[in-house]
Amino acid sequence: MMSFYETSPAEIGRPPNLILKKNPKCIYYKDIDNLYRNYITADILVVDDDPFLIKLIENKIKKMRIKSNDGDPGRPVRYKIINNSKELLEDIIEYHCTYGVIFLDENMGPDNLSGSQCISRIRNSGYENPIFSISGSFKPSYINAKVKNSGADGLIPKSPFFFSEIRKILFKLTKRNLKSE
User: Fold this and answer.
1) The domain that contains 49 carries what CATH number?
2) 177 within 8 A of 36, measured Cβ to Cβ
3) Burial class (CB in 10 A: 0-12, 13-18, 19+), 95
4) Which band of pLDDT confidence, cut at 50, 70 and 90, is reported for residue 12?
5) Rounded to whole angstroms, how far apart are CA atoms 158 and 135?
6) Residue 5 lies in a domain
7) Has this prediction a pTM greater than 0.85?
8) Do residues 49 and 83 make contact, with C-beta atoms less than 8 angstroms apart?
9) What is the C-alpha end-to-end distance of the chain, expressed in Å?
10) Does residue 150 form part of some domain?
11) pLDDT tens digit sequence for 84-108
């Protein structure tokens, strides 16, 4: 049995953070309880070109653990960071890497494909594991249709609720993993 948890602030000697309310703007296209698939490369792949956001995500992921039971101290979450669409497509399509979940930026700059274009190519290659688009757009409804049609499992705005949504997805996926073992 495996489950996911985040190190509590008390465990790392910091005061607890404020609890955020659920983000009503997060959009899921598929039932998150049925997204789990086997993977071999890493638990999480994050694709974004913003070095500041990558550092924030890395710091959050480093506090996460996956454990097999309540007495188990757990293992660190395995993750990989990619900052451009070319490397992402090589990693998945050419080298057949698989991940527990991919979080992919929708707008990665002028020299990259959009997140939607990458997701379409990845899905056309037969990749079935969960992929969530993340966006800093102030108008997620503008990109919603494009992301949904690409084959993404959901769209997560880069907002104060961003990390709580990622945590919720990881909890659901590892809970699903419990059922499959």
Assistant:
1) 3.40.50.2300
2) yes
3) exposed
4) very low
5) 6
6) no
7) no
8) yes
9) 7
10) yes
11) 999 999 999 998 888 889 999 998 8
